[in-house]
Amino acid sequence: xxxxxxxxxxxxxxxxxxxxxxxxxxxxxxxxxxxxxxxxxxxxxxxxxxxxxxxxxxxxxxxxxxxxxxxxxxxxxxxxxxxxxxxxxxxxxxxxxxxxxxxxxxxxxxxxxxxxxxxxxxxxxxxxxxxxxxxxxxxxxxxxxxxxxxxxxxxxxxxxxxxxxxxxxxxxxxxxxxxxxxxxxxxxxxxxxxxxxxxxxxxxxxxxxxxxxxxxxxxxxxxxxxxxxxxxxxxxxxxxxxxxxxxxxxxxxxxxxxxxxxxxxxxxxxxxxxxxxxxxxxxxxxxxxxxxxxxxxxxxxxxxxxxxxxxxxxxxxxxxxxxxxxxxxxxxxxxxxxxxxxxxxxxxxxxxxxxxxxxxxxxxxxxxxxxxxxxxxxxxxxxxxxxxxxxxxxxxxxxxx
Length: 401
Ligand SMILES: [Mg+2]
Known about the structure:
By secondary structure, the chain is α/β, with parallel strands linked by helices. The chain has two domains: 3-104, Enolase-like, N-terminal domain (Enolase-like, domain 1, 2-Layer Sandwich), CATH 3.30.390.10; 108-366, TIM Barrel (Alpha-Beta Barrel), CATH 3.20.20.120. It is built from 13 helices and 15 strands. It has an eight-stranded parallel beta barrel with strand order 4-5-7-8-9-10-11-12. β1 (3-11) and β2 form a beta hairpin. α3 crosses α10 (290-301), α5 (128-140) crosses α6 (182-200) and α7 (216-226) packs parallel to α8. The site of magnesium ion has 5 residues, from loops. One of its GO terms (biological process) is carbohydrate catabolic process.
């Protein structure tokens, strides 16, 4: 079997997605997600201009060799654009291999390690009573793990919380500006979890995302005050470019720590893992080089008691979700999967075998990844440039969003 053609499909059924389709001379095709939120066309161009010409004529069965060719052969290593492009090729090749062998991809990864992939949904409140209602509503839908975020009084717009239609939008800027005040947040967050636990008890896992807003000592302070509420994890308390900065957090709290939705490679977290400075690594199949590299990362983390809790926001397409679930069902130290919301239009563009039931996600039994793209439908949703918000502190300094 040879790769006969590869093409990049950009579509926007509610939000932008970049998809790579690889076709073969035997009529089997595979697809991979290459979406990099807010920088979509950079990956589309990298694929179309530099990667696709290297694929044609290759044997799609040689997944590892193709991965190494695209990683080492480019000379310029890592980075989100490169690694998302490699991930898309990798996913598509696993999809083709599964279809060629008439088996779901998880079977090629060692078979099932569990019966379903535990997932968590998002409860985002305007007030604490509103957040509690959102948690209860997800519990009614079967969720066993829920991330709780809430508007902090005095901070107009902030990550992970509901916003008004024009909130933070300046007419002279193409992006939204959010506000941030660490002191207000640090006082509020323990109160939020005290009231949520009071209302719903301890039978559901609760998670919380600080979205890279704190310093290590602030994160230690917060983690210590959240210990009584038994969080599943405190996520992205501090940006992890300086991996050793997590030592200081660890010295001050036993609240489990997760980080890494922006990681591209094992090299972004090898020290965090080796020194057991985190409990969960959040690298994703789409931004960390596909199934091939994410498996290596997870295998490296396993003896250090670090498990995966892969990023899964709505900007990861249903193709990524499919690949994440074949990884998650088969990988022993895959602990949990974030499950972001996709619009009905997105589900229609990407028909898929994976499903949610009773708090767990299931990859399904279709051969390959069990997901496809309806190209005719996709062509009706034109790309629209969009940006992630930018965060500014009360004195006007740009912060981490
Ligand atoms: Mg996050």
